[in-house]
């Protein structure tokens, strides 16, 4: 067991080796932006997948919708620059909302974010798999698409293992795929724009033509609002930098703020560029081939060759990195919640490798479930996505408004204005998201968040109650220890029992008894016979058990003894023989273990195990 | 938890209520014959599914093959009448082979039978589902067939639960479906024969015509042997009566023997009749519609109406009863093996409801796995089936030959001749089965049986070794008890720790120490401060742990103390606070439990838990 774990997650790391690498702006951009930038891979497609319901004319609205989202992006980014300045130690939604608006808002933000991190993994991995299967289809391997779920699960497993080992936030791993992705998408856009201007647009050729529906839905405000809501997934991840300010080189806040500006600039450029190219080439989501919009644009622009392949692989890699970002965020947020006693304390203990192993495992399990549930179809998951992040945006920026009024730092009025605009805008978008996506799955998230908040609070109540009960505040000195009584449970008489009898006699010389449950009269008679020789003169009590239960007669007897000697401390002694190999435990009744558990839970007695070790 | 169990399996039953109903021959036939008779539902189809490979001409061999199998049936039945006479207390293959041929042959028979019982459940349930889905298809619900696996699993679950409750072997439950089945099949045969004679044969009309292959395989000895081997599944279950002799009314042996004769008579009639009808109507296995051969014959003879429906339902019911028979046989055989120390002892303890619950659970799990693995296709499972039962036939009859020579009872020579013929014939058939079915799955059974025998033997060796080590034979009186040292493990100082400190001090007043593992220097300093007030003057030892492990520094320290006081008994005391509700355990680190387990397994120390009970 231990060896398997060592092989998978590596040797333990000493606490003193915990360290924080400071990141230059160039590497920081790579480390923190993969989540935000990777949304380029599916945000345009999400918009088109709604507009297509209005038929081919409606597809023309994609560009205005994308421009609206780009404006929103810029406003939110400005708003977050305020957070970065105010929280140089890192200001995630939970911390900012809880500090400024109170526990309940902090917990709502936390619940929303936990859900969104799980979705980040599921959506990013599924979109990454789609990038690869689209490439495979174009290169003559369409069968790969039927293994999408399996590939997705393997990816989640690998990312989970990498994080359990502890991925160093070392720049190179992140920098190469991120910059290759940025470069290849920018080249695609620039080359595509020039080519279109010189030679005119060339329509995408599909292997199987997509169905452009346009029967059911009228083109109107509702459809455009739905498309806008769908495209808001482009905003997920832009809060990442504000969480990670301390990782920047000094001056942290300034570097972080300028990195955020750069990131949003790149994101807006890529998002609008891809949306424009999709528009001119007539790229649309294709339910039948499952080919992504980016894949359609890239192969129409560059042909089926190497450049196209690089774009697809870079897209897949940055999506895996985006998933990996959630593997930093989720366990960290869970550890904050756990430290504040809103989640089980297991989430705040660091494992062998200094990582929050339980958070990593929980994230892996939940996101794998989503991938199976949605059959690795990222477009189908999107209605659940983004709600959480907009709740967090709204609460965190409302918190910042409170913060400005409270602290009144230099230039606070201007800051308050920016954050107020941000709050109002994200709140309005949140309502749009909630309304338009409600029946498409968002209801599940909106039910889940209050349930999580209730859960957080009841966990907190439990821990507080335990702490109060265990507090030494006002505890009197315990009264002098009472006398000892001890009961040895025996299942027969053999070498394994003798040390237990002897031990029980030594701690309660005056008041010791052995107890045996009669399940078979012949065996009982034989035991009583042999007890004369080997019983250390300890009285043997035989209990009757008409239903062959051990626990019931035993508990009744313990209660009786407890009442008789109510000023004594009662110790129940269990003789246990320990096999030489762990798997041999399976060959012995686990009765001892069950009795121990039942005693601990139900009876106020001391339980003592006296081992007898077998040699082979 | 307890309530759920009570609802599913019912209230416990007292040992004294264990009783054995004596069965009349009429009810005994119903109770013991369902396994054997139900094979009529698939044996003919199994023969045809092989012959069809040789094309439509080869199908003509079905009747001669069936007659050969009928002869074999009669011989084996005669042979088993000897066993019934010789073992009035029940002579299953394991008992007869082990007693007369030695342990190893007994274990081979036992392993073979255990495998076959699992297959009995999987095959019977799958065939029962096929009877129902065939009926559903004819009655316009062909979609039901796509849920065959799910229906099969639900049936296994229900039969398992019924057996965990303890099905009484009361006649009525068995008698009604068995006799309805016998009656309806006999009526089908008689009516079918008369109708054919008067009006000539009417061919089966298929919804989709089956593919009659006949390309690959030449019609020759090999194909006929394979068909014969496939049909030998008709013999499974005929040994059931010899296992259950004590359940008959006096004179047990005589009644059992005549019941066996009746059973074989009915079985042979039904099997030959169905095979003949299949032949004249041209009924063949239909891969495309999955309609059973019986269903084809029945609806061709009686039309799609009620009589046809009754036949299909009766077939399904007797197949469920056949599966239920294995639920008596498997747990009983497992309990024999467990009593003889060849299987874990958990298999020989009776549960609340007086049944061998673990055997029932094991059978349910393994047969459910087979149903999933083979997608509830009973014809695909048949190559694995029957091998086990023929191994048991051969060994048990060889054992009977030895028995006759050993006991030399009156008329033993005649008995020896009968059993010798039986042995030789079943051995020859066994070789035919093994050779013809080898590549179709029988190899798996032939690999599994020796593995089981090795497993049985190593379990036996372990138990013997434990018994030797625990034996009081030659055990000296334990030396007088040594002095006590005790170590209290503390995770802090709070009310939950005080009783443990006090207890430890009381059992080892001169030699007690508290141990704390330093994971955070600030917390450690605070603890040391408070220890002055609350530590009962017990010395506090702080252990360093660079890798945040609790176990490693603790074990090193225990080893050190053990060496220092090597003439003392060392008790490790663990303070444990017990939450008011069991689910609250999840909110606390399970560290205490892990430490206890690690200590028990690795260190020769006494482990004591001192509880502190929380109120709410």
**Most extensive chain-chain interface:** A-B, 70 and 70 residues
Q: Choose one word for the global shape of chain A.
A: elongated
Low-pLDDT ranges of chain A? none
The main β sheet of chain A shows up as: 5 strands, parallel
What radius of gyration of chain A results from the CA coordinates? 32 Å
Provide the structure class of chain A.
alpha/beta
List the strand order in the largest sheet of chain A: 3-2-1-4-5
Q: How far apart are the termini of chain A?
A: 21 Å
Strand fraction band of chain A? 5-15%
Q: Indicate the percent of residues in helices of chain A.
A: 55-70%
Looking at the overall shape, the CATH architecture of the largest domain in chain A is: Up-down Bundle
Under the CATH scheme, which class of the largest domain in chain A?
Answer: Mainly Alpha
- Total strands of chain A: 5
